[in-house]
Write a structure and sequence with these properties.
The chain has an eleven-stranded mixed beta sheet with strand order 4-3-5-6-7-8-9-13-12-11-10. A four-stranded mixed beta sheet has the order 18-17-16-19. The chain is globular and about 65 Å long. Strand 3, helix 6 and strand 4 form a beta-alpha-beta unit. About 30% of the residues lie in helices and about 25% in strands. The chain has two domains: about 350 residues, Rossmann fold (3-Layer(aba) Sandwich), CATH 3.40.50.12780; about 100 residues, GMP Synthetase, Chain A, domain 3 (2-Layer Sandwich). The chain is α/β, with parallel strands linked by helices and about 450 residues long. The protein contains twelve helices and 19 strands.
């Protein structure tokens, strides 16, 4: 539902909930969590069976009581999908009540379906409107949606922009020529894309003779999501330098809904919609709940979703939670994501994430910004190599570039790569119009 007649200079889309003091917010979360657990037990066969077997009651007294409940993950979704009904044993409503479904990409296995009833979908769109407003969008903006519409949970997010009054331009993940044409003709002020594509599109614009800062001067804000790059300062700056636009990172996952966390103007983490999602950080090995500020696996519990409640969903994302006051005045916690648990590799006792490599590559003005990582075993230890591209038009010797990048990686990560391979621009072929695949894992034994 659209929120009408909000003054353009109003800082918060929903001031009451966004600035609620944490004691009150946590009291509200407890009320919602009690209702969500009871609903899940009574309407989702998986939760009732599993909790009964463990002797767990859905009736709790505190937020800490959530720690008693088991985790679920992607394998749970796959095992229950289609069992007993089309959407399976995690679904909490009849199929007739489902009005929208998205699916995961299936990059780690069989795609999983994510159903929404009408109230779920309305809550989803309200969250999108709040995050858009937080990023500076107002009803007089033109918003070009450059994300995939094909079963992707980020597709409908354009409705959240429309609900706050902005003009929605439904372009989608189209070839760069088509997207540049739309940007030139429709002069959007906001655009949403993946970090990879925002960077690639800028390069394509330059190659076609455009000056992005001049020919697309209407563009003032770029929202990026779908990859960890949005929270890497050097990646954001590289995109901002091309377009002369401010870049905001959003985070979402198909298992919950599209964007459920996003940056404010201070860009110190992503405010998560805490009236919709309860976030925990746990030790990835033991499952022990960690204190705010400690790095571990992020675990989410939905608080108001009924088509498929997600109780303690272990995401596989490694990061930490900051619930200290933000300069923007919002009280909802900020999440910081370092990378994926299944993509972390250990070299000489040092934990390395692809985001660490991206930080170095995107900070080097002599590189195109594209890269590829290969992790492999050699002599019973893990090693890694990095491939990069020389910036378009450069004649700097490849060996000089390789030496510089090796040294920078050693300084930033603490471990030197086995080698750095340098290619001409576009030589790697990793550019993508949605999510780019840059990590090749050839290890026989994972961490």
């Amino acid at each position: 539902m659209a929120l009408k007649n909000i003054p353009y200079d109003q800082k918060y889309y929903d001031p009451e909930i966004e600035t609620m003091p944490r004691p009150e917010l946590e009291k509200y979360q407890l009320k919602l969590l009690k209702d969500e657990l009871r609903f899940s037990y009574e309407h989702c066969p998986y939760y009732k069976r599993t909790w009964d077997e463990l002797g767990l009651s859905p009736d709790i007294e505190s937020l800490k009581d959530l720690e008693k409940f088991p985790f679920i993950d992607k394998s749970t979704e796959r095992a229950t999908q289609g069992v007993g009904s089309f959407f399976g044993e995690l679904c909490g409503c009849p199929e007739d009540d489902v009005v929208y479904m998205a699916t995961s990409s299936g990059s780690t296995g069989v795609p999983t379906m994510s159903p929404f009833n009408q109230d779920d979908f309305d809550q989803f769109m309200a969250a999108e409107s709040r995050l858009f407003w937080q990023a500076g969008m107002r009803p007089n903006d033109r918003y070009l949606h450059g994300m995939n519409f094909a079963l992707y949970v980020g597709g409908p997010c354009v409705i959240g922009a429309q609900n706050l009054g902005a003009l929605g331009i439904w372009v989608g993940a189209v070839p760069s020529d088509r997207l540049l044409w739309a940007m030139k003709h429709y002069q959007p002020t906001f655009m949403w894309s993946s970090p990879s594509y925002a960077w690639l599109l800028g390069q394509k614009a330059i190659e076609k003779g455009y000056d992005p800062k001049v020919d697309f001067a209407s563009l003032k804000t770029i929202i990026i999501s779908g990859e960890p790059g949005g929270s890497i300062q050097t990646t954001r700056k590289a995109i901002e330098d091309i377009w002369d636009a401010s870049v905001y990172d959003f985070f979402g996952l198909s298992d919950i809904y599209g964007a459920c966390a996003g940056m404010c103007e201070y860009k110190d983490g992503l405010h998560i919609i805490e009236d919709q999602i309860l976030v925990e950080t746990v030790d990835p090995a033991t499952g022990e709940v960690l204190e705010p500020g400690q790095k571990g696996e992020l675990v989410y519990t939905t608080l108001q979703k009924h088509a498929r409640p997600m109780i303690r969903f272990a995401t596989g994302d490694i990061g930490w939670v900051d619930n200290t006051p933000c300069k923007c005045g919002r009280t909802h916690a900020r999440i910081h994501i370092s990378g994926r648990k299944d993509q972390m590799f250990i070299v000489s006792a040092v934990n390395v994430f692809p985001s660490d490599i991206e930080y170095v590559v995107r900070a080097d003005a002599g590189l195109s910004g594209e890269y590829r990582i290969r992790a492999y075993d050699e002599n019973y230890t893990t090693k890694y190599e990095v491939s990069v591209e020389r910036v378009f038009g450069s004649d700097e010797p490849f060996d000089k570039i390789a030496e510089r990048v090796e040294n920078a990686l050693k300084t930033h990560t603490g471990v030197r790569p086995s080698r750095v391979l340098v290619y001409e621009t576009d030589g790697l072929g990793v550019s993508a119009e949605h999510k780019a695949s840059r990590f090749i894992d050839e290890r026989e034994h994972k961490n």
